[in-house]
Amino acid sequence: MSTITTFKINVSDAKLADLKDRLARTVMPSEVESDNWNYGPTNAYVKRAIDRLLGRYDWRVEEAAINQFPQFMTEIDGQTVHFIHVKSPEAKATPLLLIHGWPGSIVEFLGVIDALTNPVAHGGNAQEAFDVVVPSLPGFGFSGPTRDKGWNNGRMANAFIELMDRLGYPRFGIQGGDAGAIIGPEIARLAPEKVLGVHLNAATMGFIPMGPIAPEDIATFNDREKARLQRLQRFMAEHFGFNAVQSTRPQALAYGLSDSPAGLLAWISELFTSFGDRPDAVPLDAFLTNFLIYWFTDTAASSIRIYYENAHDPSAWAPRANSGVPTAVAVFGFDEVPIRRYGEQGNTIVRWTEFDVGGHYAVLEVPEVWIGDVRTFFASI
User: Fold this and answer.
1) Helix residue ranges, H only, the chain
2) HSE (CB half, 13 Å, CA atoms) of 5?
3) Are 29 and 47 in contact (CB under 8 A)?
4) d(CA 71, CA 4)
5) pLDDT, mean of residues 285-298
6) Whole-model pTM?
7) pLDDT tens digit sequence for 104-160
8) pLDDT of the residue at 275
9) pLDDT bracket for residue 58 (50, 70, 90)
């Protein structure tokens, strides 16, 4: 079935009341007195978020803001896929697929859609215009939950190729961060003739070393590469527990995340705060809206299954062929782990830009910088 139908978000009053009831009855865990996040999210941070949700935060305002964008539903490979599709007023706009990751959502891109589709109104020129397509990953938000196995990066990549075909875009660009920085290059490998270029941020898989590195190789690293390797090793040693759980027993974790809004909020806050290093880098209300999309759609369980599906995909760790598609990598200051020499093994990198600002969620943290790099890359190709 290839039917595309319009969609509007309309969370029931009953769900809103249930959320507030659960939040009001939150049982906070004991904690060691500390101002840092060495043990994980602090009670102070979680309480502040809960107080905001029970106080001045207004879901109906956020819901109406999202509903200002044209949204649609279609079924692909047996799964409902939700997406935003905004066409530019410019006739020669470049189609651009924007792909989020976990625990992100379409919320990441809401604030940049108008600048991308209507650059003239934002100080740009007509040649920089994009038609923008922002899907929710299958199993995430309004594209979920998934109920069958196998929704790994490759299956999602194929679904998005089909989506762009249905929308009548024979060629298109891709921008992706986090999981989007894995799925985007996979689309380019599966259908290189369709992809104009791939712009990535928050790149990890395919852009970092996998496994031990020989001392003679480390000896060839420059100081910046050595610093990134140390950052990566620290991350793997101290902050990678979420991956281990979600890759092995996601359903055991899912009960807590699906039953307790405070539990889900705390779990995903780790990834939005650079593990406590910068707890206010992403605006609190944007984080809360992102969190609530998971909560209201009951997709906490299905979203984390992407880790299990990829970990149990026999081809997931195999070397990737180079698609030949021009690729840009934007490395933001607090997310410095990609190392170019590893990215070049499977990607045709034509632009590598390093910024001293921003982090994993650069599009939310420094949107103007992110927009500028996306525009510059696609103008160059």
Assistant:
1) 13-24, 43-54, 59-67, 113-117, 153-166, 180-190, 215-218, 223-238, 241-248, 250-259, 261-272, 284-296, 300-311, 340-343, 362-365, 367-380
2) 10
3) no
4) 10
5) 98
6) 0.97
7) 999 999 999 999 999 999 999 999 999 999 999 999 999 999 999 999 999 999 999
8) 86
9) very high
Structure tokens at 249: 């027993």
pLDDT of residue 1: 55
Q: Angle at CA 284, nearest 5°, toward 369 and 183?
A: 55
* DSSP codes, 97-142: EEE--TT--GGGGGGGHHHHH-GGGGT--GGG-EEEEEEPPTTSGG
pLDDT tens across 312-323, in order? 998 876 778 899
**Cis preceding-peptide flag for 103 (omega within 30 of 0):** yes
Cβ atoms of residues 79 and 159 within 8 Å:
yes
Res 318: pLDDT? 74
Closest CA to 138 of 90, 74, 88, 198: 74
Q: Which residue has the tokens 């249930």?
A: 18
d(CA 30, CA 18): 25
CB atoms within 10 A of CB 38: 11
Output the six-digit token pair for 75. Answer: 């079924």
Location of structure tokens 């004991």: 30
Q: Which residues contact 223 (CB under 8 A, 6 or more apart)?
A: none
Q: Angle at Cα 104 formed by Cα 83 and Cα 230, nearest 5°?
A: 140
163-210 tens-digit pLDDT: 999 999 999 999 999 999 999 999 999 999 999 999 999 999 999 998
Average pLDDT value for residue range 33-61: 94
Helices 300-311, 153-166: inter-axial angle, 10-degree rounding: 110
In CATH, what is the architecture of 18-25+40-380? 3-Layer(aba) Sandwich (3.40)
Reduce the DSSP state of residue 208 to 3 states and report it. coil
Q: How many CB atoms lie within 10 A of CB 11?
A: 16
Beta carbons of 142 and 309 less than 8 angstroms apart: no
